[in-house]
Write a structure and sequence with these properties.
alpha/beta, four-stranded mixed beta sheet, D-Maltodextrin-Binding Protein, domain 2
Length: 440
């Protein structure tokens, strides 16, 4: 009887295992991987299509959930004990906090093969230095867009600061880019990683005041419009199926130049995109000649949050040549992703070719977006300070704001601490283009 009971128990376990894996004895194990990411609309559809292409070749099932409220959604899922298998985040500061709290799995050597700096700095945790995320898609921030037909003369800058839960980042992008080109990568790195005094260091103050000087005097109505308008612009009544039009597409009549990253071209498809010119921002920012070939970049990085081995496999697939090619084919030209060591612009895509050249060949140094390196509490304070300064750029206002930001910086000291102990924010956030990181 006892042997029979054991056989029944083993059979029941095998049946349960078959149900979980979707297979049977001798058959393939079909695994499900849930991916949480920032892309919705056409961007999300293109990424889902790429996942389906990968799934068809393997039999695993990939479920993508896109949201514009990524941090809030992920925090809620972590608190509920139901995280996604893979999360795609653009903040090194957030990723560092999750790793310090034991929420991230170290990437396997195969999954970490494309851990390119400055997007994938390693972390020292539990006495070991390992890779916890890799970039899937990257963007170039140090760009200025303008209409090709714009007559010569000083720029009339397009500025819109609203962005749902993270309003203010279009302004911090300005400050970061200016500081990088005025003070250089070393000072930029110390500032981004919490080792520079916001109030006392002249580089930070100079970046703020230079921004105000570049924008010039603005009316109360203009300031209010910029603070309340989305960086995507306003709906185009002539095209109800296209929810947004960019700032250069008529949302802010009269403006001629926009400081914005490479991702913004999704707002200018087809002929609208062909009518625009894209240039490095250095020539506009009153920086030093020594730093004109230094560029600020951002990225969407994939991290694994569960023990599901299929999640590690998917990260490897997404960064593979076939994964990249499938994603590029699935996306329209204006949504085609750029990659950290090579891009895939199609013949005739002059804008894509130019951006790819800056990312992979023309730059001396690439530096990761400073606010996305900062711990979230300091980043969010930076966003709010920029919004306040935009409204009131007087010296006294700047003194108060920089003092408040320095208080936040000194309190957190740039060192998240969690279940795995103190973790220093990575300081290798600047690197030559196309360089390969250390193996995990």
């Amino acid at each position: 009887m006892r042997g029979r009971a054991v056989r029944v128990l083993v059979a029941a376990c095998l049946l349960a295992l078959a149900a979980l894996t979707g297979g049977c004895a001798g058959g393939p194990a079909h695994r499900t991987v849930v991916v949480l990411g920032p892309w919705t609309g056409a961007e999300g559809a293109a990424f889902e299509d790429a996942l389906q292409r990968l799934s068809a070749g393997r039999g695993d099932r990939y479920v993508y959930k896109g949201t514009r409220s990524l941090r809030e959604t992920l925090v809620a899922q972590l608190e509920a004990g139901a995280p996604p298998d893979v999360a795609i985040l653009n903040s090194i500061g957030e990723l560092t906090e999750y790793a310090a709290d034991g929420k991230l799995e170290p990437l396997s050597p195969r999954a970490a093969e494309r851990a390119y700096p400055p997007w994938s700095p390693t972390l020292m945790l539990d006495g070991r230095r390992r890779t916890y995320w890799v970039p899937l898609r990257v963007n170039l921030k140090s760009l200025v867009w303008s209409k090709r037909a714009t007559p010569p003369g000083p720029p009339n800058w397009c500025v819109a600061m609203a962005a749902q839960a993270t309003s203010g980042w279009p302004g911090t992008d300005w400050i970061e880019d200016i500081l990088l080109h005025q003070a250089g990568p070393d000072t930029y790195t110390r500032w981004a990683t919490g080792r520079l005094d916001w109030y006392r260091d002249p580089a930070v103050r100079r970046a703020f005041t230079t921004w105000a000087q570049l924008l010039g005097p603005r009316s109360t109505r203009s300031v209010e419009q910029s603070l309340t308008m989305s960086y995507e612009g306003t709906p185009d009544p002539a095209h109800p199926d296209d929810p947004r039009r960019g700032l250069l597409g008529g949302s802010l009549p009269g403006c001629t130049h926009e400081h914005q990253g490479s991702f913004i071209r999704y707002l200018y498809p087809g002929a609208a995109g062909e009518a625009l010119r894209v240039e490095p921002s250095a020539r506009y920012l009153r920086g030093q000649a020594a730093y004109k070939d230094t560029y600020e970049v951002s990225g969407d990085m994939a991290a694994v949050l569960t023990h599901n081995p299929a999640a590690q496999d998917l990260v490897k697939l997404l960064t593979s040549e076939s994964g990249r090619a499938g994603w590029s084919r699935a996306a329209p030209e204006e949504l085609r992703p750029f990659f950290p060591d090579a891009s895939d612009p199609q013949p005739g895509d002059a804008t894509g070719q130019a951006i790819a050249s800056y990312l992979t060949r023309d730059a001396d140094t690439l530096c990761f977006d400073a606010s996305d390196v900062m711990p979230p509490v300091l980043r969010d304070a930076f966003y709010r300070a920029v919004l306040t300064y935009f409204q009131d750029p007087r010296p006294g206002t700047l003194d108060t704001l920089l003092s408040q930001l320095e208080t936040v910086r000194s309190e957190i000291a740039g060192t998240p601490s969690g279940r795995s102990g103190p973790v220093r924010v990575p300081d290798d956030i600047c690197a030559p283009p196309g360089s390969q990181g250390d193996p995990p």
